[in-house]
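Q: I have 214 residues here and want to know how they pack in 3D. Can you give me a structure?
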Amino acid sequence: MAPSTVHAVLARHGLSRLSRLDRVTGDVIRYERDHPGELIHVDVKKLGRIPDGGGWRVHGREQRPAMKRGNGYDYLHVAVDDHTRIAFVQVHPDEKGATCAQFITDAFAFYDELGITVERVMTDNAKNYTVSAAFQAALGDRRHKTTRRYRPQTNGKAERFNRTLLDEWAYARVFNSNNERTATLQDWLNDYNWVRTHSALGNHPPASRLPSTT
């Protein structure tokens, strides 16, 4: 078996680096915060909009030259709680500071309803987070952590969720319009948070780690 194939399999299971294994037991070392709300990971994923009538997934790639181009993008604003993996997502037309501020405000309210008090927020070093007065004001007294430069894996839980979001929702089936796809997001999120099991959580859904008061 080619070394590259071995590496790909190990990477898929989070075992590509020796530092992620206990050298004595061989168990996977998973880094996570101790309790809900201690840290939430925040990110934005850019997603091409689907034209009315469907895109190339409906009509086939050979029809692409005849199809209208320039449908623009949706911006998926994502928050993932480090301990529970409970996710919150909104679709917005941009990723400006004011939009990020509104998103994080709504995210705090969402987690608060679940009994989770957010203490820290991690983002990348984009100006819409680090420079935006609106976003910094929305954080209040919560600590703002940023990823190490050129090390997006620092925000790995958000990056991993984004991949799942695309694979299991955005590209999971054929949609005939952008509105049709967007309308299914909340149902998918409900399943992800309350039903879908996660190997990192002992094959339980994220909701299993919610505070007992909820």
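Q: Anything worth noting?
A: The chain has two domains: 1-30, 35-209. Residues 98 and 134 are 6 Å apart (CA to CA).
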